[in-house]
Amino acid sequence: MLDHIGLKVTDIERSRVFYDQALKPLGISVIMDVSAAETGSTPFLGYGEGRKPYFWINQQARATELLHVAFAAESRAKVDEFYRAAMAAGGRDNGPPGPRPHYHASYYGAFVLDPDGHNIEAVCHAPE
Predict the structure, then answer these.
(1) What are the residues whose beta carbons fall under 8 Å from the beta carbon of 56, sequence distance 6 or more?
(2) pLDDT, tens digit, for every residue of 83-101?
(3) Is residue 18 within 8 Å of 90, Cβ to Cβ?
(4) Looking at residue 95, what is its pLDDT?
(5) Tens of pLDDT along 67-85?
(6) Largest CB tally within 10 Å, which of 55, 82, 107, 112?
(7) All domains of the chain in start order, with CATH
(8) CB-based contact 71:83 (threshold 8 Å)
């Protein structure tokens, strides 16, 4: 099991606007905001639930090579909400909400490209 993951973004404020809005339907928000002064280099944002940040972004001149991150959604409706929120936040469609039976019979996901082109997904594994 992964404890956390981090990726580099080219504009942390632009990415914050995207992720704040896109992850809100999943109950995920900024748990830690670490300034450049605190790190001695670049700012970091840690997203998670409760007190546990597990998805980190930090600003760099070059973004991480394109990457795919999938967030668990408690229902298909939450996948749909994620997709709408991510698109409204400036995301680019990379696969609208729907079943993906080639993964498994209950797989329901949506894919959106973030401002740096990372493939961000919300997925529900529960049957309808």
Answers:
(1) 4, 5, 6, 7, 44, 45, 46, 47
(2) 999 999 999 999 999 999 9
(3) yes
(4) 98
(5) 999 999 999 999 999 999 9
(6) 82
(7) 5-124 (3.10.180.10)
(8) no
